[in-house]
Design a protein that fits this description.
This protein is α/β, with parallel strands linked by helices. Among the domains are: 160 residues, Aldehyde Dehydrogenase, Chain A, domain 1; 153 residues, Aldehyde Dehydrogenase, Chain A, domain 2, CATH 3.40.309. It is built from 15 helices and 20 strands. The strands form 7 sheets. Strands 6-7-17-20 form a 4-stranded antiparallel beta sheet. The protein has a 4-stranded mixed beta sheet with strand order 11-14-13-12, sandwiched between helices. Strands 1-5-4 form a 3-stranded mixed beta sheet, with no helix packed on it. Strand 4 and strand 5 form a beta hairpin. The longest helix has 17 residues. Keywords: NAD, Oxidoreductase. Pfam families: Aldedh (PF00171). Belongs to the aldehyde dehydrogenase family. InterPro entries: Ald_DH/histidinol_DH (IPR016161), Ald_DH_C (IPR016163), Ald_DH_CS_CYS (IPR016160), Aldehyde_DH_dom (IPR015590), ALDH7A1-like (IPR044638).
Length: 511
Amino acid sequence: MYGFLVRRAMGARNPQKALTWFSSFNLSRSVHSLPFATVEVEKISGSQPAEVHNLVQGKWAGSSNWNTIVDPLNGEPFIKVADVDEKGVQCPKHGLHNPFKAPERYLLFGDISAKAAHMLSIPERISLVIRFVSWQGLFSSWKSSRTAKSWLSLAIWSGGNCHTFQFSLGDSSTSINECYMGNKPTLKKCFVDVDFINSDGRTMNKLLLEANPRMTLFTGSSRVAEKLAVDLKVRIKLEDAGRDYVAWVCDQDAYACSGQKCSAQSMLFMHENWSCTSLISKLKDLAERRKLEHLTIGPVLTVTTESMLEHMNKLLKIPGSKLLFGGEPLENHSIPQIYGAIKPTAIYVPLGEILKANNYELVTREIFGPFQIITDYKGDQLPLVLDALERMHALLTAAVVSNDPSFCRQDLIFSCEVIGNSVNGTTYAGLRARTTGAPQNHWFRPAGDPRGAGIGTPEAIKLVWSCHREIIYDFGPCQSNGRFQHQPEKSYCQQECSWFSSQQSGISATF
């Protein structure tokens, strides 16, 4: 949603900042003209808290217990979430449609998608969506088209053919993509097909254990992902132009959304040719332009300031390491201590030290915030870089950047060597390479792990939300005394093939 930003009030110290970027627009209708809109995003505050309900069996429901969310900017309790405890969770196990059961529902979801697309084409409705998305973070994507398909293979015998279908996995966990495949997800506004549940991590873990879903798509920390992989017996898919342009991309990849993106740049390997340029100084200048006042840097929701600074101090004890920029808490703010608030930070650590056994886990620790490691290497040290990549377990995105606009043969060989010896699921290569592209038109998933979830393509939908099932039909002539009735004369080869085919009569299924 680039180019759109809603600025919320920065607390009593600067009330004039409460004006939004969108206030300059003269919308043809107000938010109240939309029948489904129950809140104005700019007015959500401690005095007018929003409420988040659960969607259960097509009905929005509150709860006797409410979890209060504290505003990351000023500490006011501004959102109430209907909480579900461990006693109130259960999930039925049945697929809602497949190629044989209620197949008309495939067309139904085509209609649903078409109507949703039409609604998003209406200016006042799309503006509401944009305002909500921009209010909570500068990242958004929606696009799911060309759902799964079935195909036909003709058999070699009379009356027989082979069909391949993509069947739903029954009950599963996320949104519209799995609805296409007939699953019952836990999340949306399509009434009977989806449940939307608010809970803490422990309660959701209990729900998953009791419901035993056939597939769960998880986006989050690698630690929780590994736990869920064990709990769910692996039925889970896991989601993880010159120097000026390259510096800008590095800044965006590492620090946009305060580094809170699944594919944020967490480590930068610079060839010595790049380290001799002004790349780091340009990156430093760009990072220091980020200010809380215009929300180009902001609260970190999952890591506290103390935790990030403690991690930084441990890194600075490694021989040869140094602070390149940042490393300080944000100033003059009202962000609660339960959140993180630090300036965009980069730590240099020598490549040789990174590869040491007692340093590697520390250097590659996952920090979901505006924090990255930078190192450099010489031309003959590329194998060491590849070794560092080989030992990583989070393999979602990578960028291989060439400094030659023509992408000449030598750069191509370099890129192929890196790509050929790494397993990142989505790798961007070339001068414009980055780690946080918008995967609306290409495959996007981690690699090197069969649990890796794909998004962004029809193949991804089929991989995550359906299973392959083969149906073999055979309506050929029945046998009598080992021979076919009413068959014309055939050659020996044809007779042998027919006999073999006849032995396969019945139904064969491959799961």
